[in-house]
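Usage

Read records sequentially. Each one opens with the input sequence:
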Amino acid sequence: MDMRIGNFSVGEVMEWQGVYRDPLEMYPDASQLEIDAHRGWLEPHSIDPETGNVIMAFRSYLIRTERLTILVDACVGNDKERPVRPSWHKQKWPWMDNLRAQGVNPDQIDIVMCTHLHTDHVGWNTKLEDGRWVPTFPNANYLFHKTEYDYWEEEHKSQAWARDAFIDSVLPVVEAGKAVMVSGDHEIDHGLWLEHTPGHTPGAVCLHAENAGSHGIFCGDLMHHPLQVPESQWSSIFCEDPDLSRKTRMAFVDRHAETDTMILPAHFADVGGGHIVAGGPDGKPIFEFSR
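and closes with the structure output:
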């Protein structure tokens, strides 16, 4: 589905979408009673009616302005050695075909912006060529938050699940001279800037896009699932700092509830974008998809 933020065009490049896992496993602070209260507005697009498991997507976003073509997040990737995650191991996803279906070839990407450096956000940064990992997007600058890079540069040495992704999908970009390290909040171009939103990871960022009176925020894994809009106090098992993640997310939801700001998370199923609106159980906000 194509969306617009003012005159900016926004497309989705899907890698995978489907039934994922039990929300009680994903959100340690949740109860079944609390989850069930939201099934009415989440089924069938975001919760599977049969199993009660969450439905999630793995996608990138493609932003096209008059000056730039920007890829937001790079999913899991193909041919990657991921033995600790068998469902991601040496895959052959149709992601590249889906990118080209948007009318964009890899050499037309100007900027790759990873909201953070978890395995499922960096994979397509690189491709396997003659037995070596090389940047997939030869003409792009890759934006990494320095806090994020420094954290994983150290952590990948001791975290087996993070090691392979850092070595094959981040380091080759740095070694090729394609990485641009940014700090704090960072302006990319007129109407495009990064906001440092730590918690899920130390250097996680949101990308703001503002044009012609419209505002959208690509928020990565600040929220993994629409459940975290009304229940913004729930941090997932994937958060590096659950307490800080909770604080950052609760402030984000409060700030953008009942506004015209489009929210574009990385993993919400259905279409990616939507708005935080009133009308949920117990007076809580919910996520209204831009179908």
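Summary fields computed downstream for this record:
- The mean pLDDT is 97.
- The helical segments are 23-26, 32-36, 39-42, 95-101, 146-155, 160-175, 242-256.
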